[in-house]
Amino acid sequence: SEFYSPKDIEQKWQEIWEKEEAFKVGTDKSKPKFFALVEFPYPSGQGLHVGHPRPYTALDIIARKRRLEGYNVLYPMGWDAFGLPTENYAIKNHIHPKIVTKKNIEHFTEQLKALGYSFDWDREINTTDPNYYKWTQWIFLQLFKKGLAYKSEMPINWCTSCKVGLANEEVVGGVCERCGGEVVRKVKSQWMLKITEYADKLIDDLDMVDYIEKIKVSQVNWIGRSVGAEVDFKIPGKEENLRIFTTRPDTLFGATYMVISPEHPLIDKYKDEIKNYTDLINYREQAAKKSDFERTELVKEKTGVVINGLTAINPVNGKEIPIWISDYVLMTYGTGAIMAVPAHDERDWDFAKKFNLPIIEVVAGGNVNEAAFTNTSTGKLVNSEFLNGLEVADAKIKILEWLTEKGIGYKKVNYKLRDWVFSRQRYWGEPIPIVHCEKCGYVPVPESELPLMLPEVESYEPTDNGESPLAAMTDWVETTCPHCGGHAHRETDTMPQWAGSSWYYLRYIDPHNSEAFAGKEELEYWLPVDWYNGGMEHTTLHLLYSRFWHKFLYDQGLVNTPEPYKKRTSHGMILGENNEKMSKSRGNVVNPDDIIGEFGADTLRTYEMFIGAFDLSAAWSNEGVKGCRRFLDRVWKLKDIVTSEEAYSDNLETKMHQTIKKVTSDFESMKFNTAIAAMMSLVNEFYRVGSITKGEFKTLLLLLNPVAPHITEELWQIIGEKGRVYQETWPVYEEAKTIENTVEIAVQINGKVKANLTISLDEKQEEVETKAKELDSVKAALNGKNVMKVIYVPGRILNIVVK
Ligand code: ANZ
Ligand code: ZN
Predict the structure, then answer these.
(1) Domain 23-222+422-571, architecture per CATH
(2) How far is the CA of 151 from the centre of ligand 2 (A)?
(3) pTM of this prediction?
(4) pLDDT tens digits for 557-590?
(5) Which parts of the sequence bind ATP (predicted)?
(6) Among 368, 394, 459, 579, which residue's CB has the most CB atoms within a 10 Å radius?
């Protein structure tokens, strides 16, 4: 074939790979293994987005390279198929979500296959398949049995438009992450997972893994470990103390008032003595309308009401100080109460200024009339009796000793991380395998009865009071207690979409196992995932959740590594041509099918890897796509200038070794764009030279194969090679041969440059001198002169001193 026609070759190779089981995971466990993982997609009705091929191609490159390097590679794909968009589509169009999901998966599969990924399709998984969610439910039961799944009445984030409870992580900027709707607090009985039990391990074990730094930082910040103290303040006339959490016990002498959360139980407990109880309740109602995010925003104008009838005593100096309520203190953090130190805390300072409360400086170094002085690394304690003169760090130690000794305070570690709200009042999710018995309480469905199948319902709409549609299925809900045989009700909430993805990488290891989520031997061979690439947006959601589940399974002896993923990297987004997010409403969505149809899958793959630094977002450019297609056209036409020689020619040898070195290391550091640039430069060099050996061409094909697998297999065949590229070995380079052997030196006469001369680095002075003296300009300058001395600075200058 004269012209490069992707249509004629891409499908052909996809069929060959499938027939030859080219990417099926090997059974030879004596080989080193490599488990490459990308986040499995949610099969939406829109089909594949051009954002998907970026990470998928990236790890396909790594996976293909590893196979050529002799590894047994597992690079799997599957479907994260439970979730709201499908359910919403089903509600609107009266089609069962199962049918919608099936259709969407078929479409996605076709699209992914057209891209030529080296997935082992025999290991495909689907979170909505009962054979899969059986194990999601099983893991949930293990969590329940260990007390890590519990039901709790608690205020949750409630999206008024989706009518569904949201995890903190799903509320972004105070609104619903999915629909942008208003999020309010609503008290509901919810299944919770005790991720907080793993807070320390989730931070500390980050030392064991190779994650890009910003991922580690945001996980640490999200967990928000904060070391401080709890301190009791006496309430005059009451037995009960007001307990607060502070990270700055050193500032106790500067506490001039207290603030409790509007939801604090003290208010209702002493409602009869509180003279302005109604004001407090009104304020509480206003606060309920705001999200935690809004309430704690620094810039927000402070509001609050002083409690009329209750005060507190500062334990360090016996002073009686007022108690206020304000929405900037959250009931869900610490003890829901603070001591306010306006001199050294910004929010307290704003509040004190607004309500004219006293500000007492206790750490010198700022101007507390102008602003709160929050620096803890400079300045010594003042106005603080026995703490005066100490640095903040030392004062913290001393006051803690003092408090502990007196029994009014102790060291306390708090976390921002909350337990994970695991209930969804929705249909399209895994049923939670628990029944509620009036006598026995919450009882697990026996493991032998798993999977607990999602029943067929008439309508998928959540009920108006926010119950799952399963609640309307009386026949299903009414059941008997597995424990006492008495009357019981099934749980009607389902699991969140994060459930199935919390352990999916484990199922890839042994997807057809019916005895366990995966066999022990298989787990031991394949764990941990060697390289996991995914979106930054999952850092504090899926990535953290799955680390938690894995650690739990590790503690139960069910997996053999403390961490699921050895390495985690992240890709940037692909934006529209105008640098805006691609969206239907903006009309700037690029459909991968169109690009494949017009230019071929290899061009799309090459382009998405060439588009820019992998970790940064990049704007789509049709010109860029065409450029990549031109590059592949040029690679194609090289077949016409290939000789039958296997060895590298002298004039290309250095360039060959340099290119192998560059591509090899750039792929490893995900610098795909510069790796491709190096191959483009090699191709330019090939054309400049005009004729290339077969050996040179084959090396190019091997290097390019992970990026553009179809064209390279086809060319390999065209030049008469018997095997396949995928069965070859990755090219090697010799370090010594990557170094340019020739240099250009300056030839000087009496210090003045007369000519430049290209020499080989290993040439001796005499040889260089002889060559220099043959140059016309040098000859002329030497004419009639006596050479007194010749100085040679190797590789740089030859200076001839004459008289
Ligand atoms: C007195 C103080 C003095 C504070 C000072 C800070 C600076 P992190 O680091 O986030 O843990 N706080 C405690 N519980 C709170 C709640 N439920 N809602 C809002 N704020 C709360 O912050 C801990 C600090 O946040 C605590 O230390 C407390 O204010 C406040 F110069 O206590 B601090
Ligand atoms: Zn019972």
Answers:
(1) 3-Layer(aba) Sandwich (3.40)
(2) 17
(3) 0.87
(4) 999 999 999 999 999 999 999 899 998 888 889 9
(5) 584
(6) 368
